[in-house]
Amino acid sequence: MTISEADALEAEASALDADDPLRTYRDAFVGARTSLVYFDGNSLGRPLRASVERLAAFARDEWGGRLIRGWEPMPGAESESAPADDVPWMQLPFAIGDTIGRAAIGAAPGQTVVGDSTTVLLYKLVRAAFDAAAAADPGRREIVVDRDNFPTDRYVVEGIAAERGGRVRWIDVDVTAGVTADALRGAVGPATAVVVLSHVAYRSGYLADAATLTRIAHDAGALILWDLCHSAGSVPVEADAWDFDLAVGCTYKYLGGGPGSPAFAYVASQLQGRLTQPIQGWMGAADVFAMGPEYRPAEGMRRFLSGTPPIVGMLPMQDTLALVEEVGIEAIRRKSVALTEFAVRAADELLVPLGVAVASPRDPSLRGGHVTLSHPAMRAVTARLWAQDVLPDYRDPGGLRIGLSPLSTSFAETLAGLRAVEAAVRAES
Ligand SMILES: *Cc1c(COP(=O)(O)O)cnc(C)c1O
Question: How far is the CA of 117 from the centre of ligand 1 (A)?
Fold first, then answer.
C-alpha cells in the first residue's frame, strides 16, 4: 500500500462521516466517545444513555415505589373481564411487541409479543407449527432447515423432530452465502410441515429473499418460520406483506435490549387460533388471575406466553425502538449498506493483499449488516485485537466478523478497526 492509498481511505471515511445524515445519533450511546472500536454491535448492541436513566428510574420509582402494586391495575382503572389489560407491566409484552411490529418488522398490531429467549420461542412456535401441520395432514412430518443456520435453531429443530416422531430435512449451503430459492425448492414438498430459516445468516451475513422463499414454502403447502435475530433493527422486514407465518428475533443485537433481553415472536393473525404451544403456563391462559383448575389458552398472542413477563429486561429496548422508529428502518438500512460497502472496499485494499478473503456476499442487496473476513490466523488475530480494545468476534472456520451497527458506528471507527486488523494479520503471518 502506498501513502496516497492510505490517505485516500482516510479522506473517504471523513467525507462519509461528514455526509452521514445519522452521524449525530452516535453520541446518544454510552461510550461512543472513546477510541474503542466496536465491531460487535450485531451481537450485543451498545446501550443508549437514555436506557441507563430508564433502568435507574424504574428501580427507584416503579419497582421500589409501586412494589407488588405494579402487577395490579393503576388506581382508578376499570378491571372487567380481562384484568390484565389494565396493568401496565402485564401489557408491556404486547405494547413493545406492537412497537417492534411497527418500527422494525412490518407487522400490524396484535401479532408480535415479547416473551422468552429466542431459543425458547423457537421451540414453542416450531413445535406448535409442526403439530398443526401434522394434524391437518399426517403425511407432513418433515422440518426443513439449513446446515449453516444458527446452532440453537438446528438443535431445537432436531429436538422437536425426535420428540414428535418427525424428520429433519437438511439444506446444504455455501457458508459464504445462504439459502437460495433453488435450494429451498429442492427441499420442500408434500412431506414438509414447517421450514425454519434465518433472514440474515449469522456467519456470512447473507440476506435471504424472504418474500420469495416464503412463497416457495407456501406453494409446497408448508408453514415457514423466519429467524430475524440479525435483521430486526438493521434490515427492513415486511412480515405481513411478505406473508410470513411465524417469526422470532433477538432484542439484544440491533434493538439494544441488553445482555439476555427477551426475544419477540410474531404469529400471523389468521394462524393464531390454529396453534397451541407446548409450555402451558398461567400467563398464557384465557383468564390469568382466575387461577382455574385447568388450562385454556387465551385468544390472540397471549397464548404464546408462559410465565411472568421479564419486565426489567424489556426496559432498554424501548429506547432503541423509539430511536429506530424516529430514524426509520429505510434510513438505517442506507447507512448500514454504506458502512458494509466501505468495509469491503477497505478490506480489498488493506487485507485481501495479505491473503484475507471476504466471506460475505459482495452484492449489498444480498448482504445484511455484517461482513465476515476469513484467514487461517483469525482466531489469534481476534485475541490480539481484543487486547487493544478493538472488538470483532470470531466464528469458525477462520472468520472474523465485523458487525457494523448503523446508529452507533462511524466510518472513521470502521477504518480504524480495519487498520488494526491489518496490523494484527501482518503480526500473525
Ligand atoms: C443470536 C441468535 C440466536 C440467539 O438465541 P438466544 O436464545 O437468545 O441465545 C438465535 N438465532 C440466531 C439466528 C441468532 O443470531
Answer: 8
**Ligand 1 proximity of 280 Cβ (cutoff 6 Å):** no
The residues assigned a catalytic role are 150, 227, 252-253, 401
Same domain, 225 and 85: yes
Q: How far is the CA of 246 from the centre of ligand 1 (A)?
A: 16
Rounded to 10 deg, the angle between the 49-57 and 315-327 helix axes is 140
What is the pTM (predicted TM-score) of this model?
0.96
Query: Rounded to whole angstroms, how far apart are CA atoms 154 and 198?
Result: 11
> In 3-state terms, what secondary structure has residue 158?
helix
228 and 241 within one domain: yes
Mean pLDDT in order along the chain per 10 residues (429 residues): 76 98 97 95 96 97 92 66 68 97 98 98 98 97 97 98 98 94 98 98 97 98 98 98 98 98 98 97 90 92 97 98 98 98 98 98 98 97 97 94 98 98 97
* Residue nearest to ligand 1 atom 6, measured at CA: 118
Tell me, what CATH number does 385's domain have?
3.90.1150.10
The label of the residue with cell 414453542 reads: 124
Residue 361 shares a structural domain with residue 308: no
